[in-house]
Amino acid sequence: MINQLIMSAVFSAIWSVAFLISSFFLDKFIDNLYSTIIAYIFTSTCNFLSQMHIFSKKRASFAYTFKYFITTMLELSVMSYGGYYAIQHKKYLEVKYNKFVSVLKENFNKYFNTIARIVLGIIVFFCVSYPFKKFW
Fold first, then answer.
1. Is the distance from CB of 23 to CB of 35 less than 8 angstroms?
2. Which residue from 74, 88, 54 is spatially nearest to 125, judged by alpha carbons?
3. Residue 77 to residue 48: CA distance in whole angstroms
C-alpha cells in the first residue's frame, strides 16, 4: 500500500512537470490558451493511465472513468481559463502587485506563463481537484 502511494505521488509529479514543460514549449508555437489545453489533456490522460496501472490490475469501470473525465474537464476548464486570464491581464497584475511582479519581471519574465500555471495549478488542486476526487 505504501509503495502504491509513493508510486502514485511520483507519477503525479512527473506528469505535472511534463505539463509545465510541454506547455512552455508549445507557447512558442501556438497561443497560450491552446498550449495549456493540449498539454493538460495529454498529461492528464497519461496520469490517469499511470494511476490505473498502479492501483488497479483490472480495467476501470465506466462510472469511475466517467467521474475522472468530468473532474479532469472541470480542472481543464479552470486551468485554461484561469491561465489565459492571468496571462492576458499581465499588465493589470503588474500594477496591482507591483513590487512582487517587478521582481518576477526582472528575473523571470521569460517564464511568466509557466509561473502563472504553477500558481493556478496549486489553486486548482486544492479548490477543485482534491475536493471533487475525494468527496464525489
1. yes
2. 74
3. 17
Contact 40, 76 (CB under 8 A): yes
CA dihedral 88, 121, 132, 69 (to 10 degrees): 80
Q: What is the C-alpha to C-alpha distance for residues 7 and 50, in angstroms, rounded to an integer? A: 9
136 residues of the chain, pLDDT tens digit each: 678 778 878 888 888 889 889 989 998 999 888 888 898 889 888 888 888 877 776 666 777 778 777 877 788 788 777 777 777 776 666 666 665 656 655 667 777 778 778 888 888 778 777 776 666 5
d(CA 98, CA 104): 10
The three cell numbers of residue 17 are: 512537470
Q: How far is CA 14 from the centre of its chain?
A: 12
Alpha-carbon distance of 43 to 57, in angstroms, equals: 21
Residue 76 Cα to chain centre, angstroms: 7
Predicted TM-score of the model (pTM) = 0.69
Phi, psi of 131 (to 5 degrees): -60, -40
Answer for the pair 16, 43: CB distance below 8 angstroms, yes or no. yes
